[in-house]
Design a protein that fits this description.
The protein has seven helices and two strands. It is mainly alpha-helical. The chain has one domain: NADPH-cytochrome p450 Reductase, Chain A, domain 3, CATH 1.20.990. It has a two-stranded antiparallel sheet with strand order 1-2. The mean pLDDT is 92. Keywords: FAD, Flavoprotein, Oxidoreductase. It holds the Pfam family FAD_binding_1. GO terms for molecular function: flavin adenine dinucleotide binding; FMN binding; oxidoreductase activity. This is Sulfite reductase [NADPH] flavoprotein alpha-component-like FAD-binding domain-containing protein. It comes from Spumella elongata.
């Protein structure tokens, strides 16, 4: 609930998500609340990849944050990215670190993996 507050997401907002629907039923979507999406489906505490950071760039409104996120995906910033990995930075950490991120609720499932 604290995370949703920080991300300015209404926990009761309804969202329709294709990515979390059963694979065997093509064309199905799951309709759930934002709170359930983040607590039961998305792996908020997993370790992000550089690919995740690349996908975040367009959602950063602040130009400095956009540059910082983009730079973390570059080879010359490998060490800095690995330090963050060593400190066990999670998806949630990155999402809350960059305050200017404006991600539509239905896009989170495209950005993050689901809980295994």
């Amino acid at each position: 609930a604290e995370f949703l507050k920080m991300m300015n997401v209404d926990p009761f907002a309804m969202v329709s998500v294709e990515e979390i629907a059963p694979q065997e039923e093509e064309g199905t979507v799951v309709i759930t609340t934002a709170e359930k999406l983040f607590t039961q489906y998305l792996d908020l505490f997993g370790k992000p990849t550089r690919e995740f950071l690349k996908k975040l760039v367009p959602y950063a409104v602040d130009i400095m944050e956009k540059v910082t996120i983009a730079e973390l995906t570059l080879d010359r910033k490998t060490e800095e990215f690995q330090e963050k990995q060593a400190r066990a930075c999670t998806y949630a950490d990155y999402l809350t670190e960059f305050k200017s991120l404006k991600i539509p609720l239905d896009k989170y499932a495209e950005l993050m993996p689901t809980i295994k």
